[in-house]
């Protein structure tokens, strides 16, 4: 039995000089010396032209941001001019409710604009179909073989979807590849340079809310600013020039709003029509091209719900859904491999591009 104070560790024999030299302790390196493999997130390696912020939680489009910066600065300028003059006058002289409603509408417009600009519009995942069915022979002109399209049944109609060579996947119905962002976007309506982002399934409701709130806010600014300038001249018995000098903020807000309200109202009217018909901007442009190139009526819309009320409710009240991109997530290894049997001699492609086994 070993005494508890006696160690079983081997020790060195005494040296000729009778100096005891113990063995060095068997210690592990400190944790700080262990190499740490840095984790990468999806937004750091994602092959697109989008700009990511806040560790991938926010994103914008891949084109120039100056149009968005100018439009956002214009919204802030109109709001600041109205708050500094008209809003203060209404609060102290007429009705604080007008100022409160105006403040709420301005905040709603700004928040919807930012949500449209920095939200994932519905970017589709890449590399879902890395090995699509191809024609057995190359085209006669020597071009690249294009993967076969797919025909999907939507209610009573057939919708043909194409393969995206960039994203390596078949695009769902109503999806399109944006060349400015270099992404396939689900239910893509268009790419809006004024918000520097694509308008798709996940931010189309915010876009429509932004247009509606912007038009209502501009009308409120125009009316309250005009009434402010009119009452200044009537209550203080001054001419119109002096009224402009005393209410310079109202004059600036009125002038800028008059210039902006017309194109924004036209854009709202255009998208209201699209909402009632349940079609996207891209589909509307294709229908116009169909009328120009092919005589006769265009094919029916398979996505309509039969009435404008149902179409309006389906587009505006549908859930945005989760983000397939999930740019903030940690990158994981893709362990998928192409079935080796597809490349062996025992397999062939039929006329429809479907892989099938051949008889042995």
Number of strands: 12
Structural class: alpha+beta
| N-C termini distance | 76 Å
Residues in helices, as a percent range? 40-55%
Q: If you compute it from the alpha carbons, what radius of gyration comes out, rounded to the nearest whole angstrom?
A: 33 Å
Instruction: Characterize the overall form.
Output: flat
What is the chain-wise order of helices and strands? HEEHHEEEEEEEEHHHHHEE
Describe this structure in words.
The chain has a domain of 220 residues. Helices cover 41% and strands 11% of the residues. The protein contains 8 helices and 12 strands. The longest helix is centred in the middle third of the chain and has 32 residues. The chain starts with 41 loop residues before the first helix and ends with a strand.
Tag the structure with descriptive keywords.
alpha+beta; single chain; two-stranded antiparallel sheet; 11% strand; 12 strands; disordered N terminus; disordered C terminus; 360 residues; two-stranded antiparallel ribbon
Briefly characterize the structure:
This protein is α+β, with helices and mostly antiparallel strands and 360 residues long.
Per-chain topology:
Layout: H1 42-45, E1 51-53, E2 58-60, H2 66-94, H3 96-118, E3 150-154, E4 157-161, E5 163-164, E6 169-170, E7 176-178, E8 183-185, E9 190-192, E10 197-199, H4 204-235, H5 240-246, H6 248-277, H7 281-293, H8 308-317, E11 347-349, E12 355-357
Antiparallel strand pairs: 1-2, 3-4, 5-6, 7-8, 9-10, 11-12
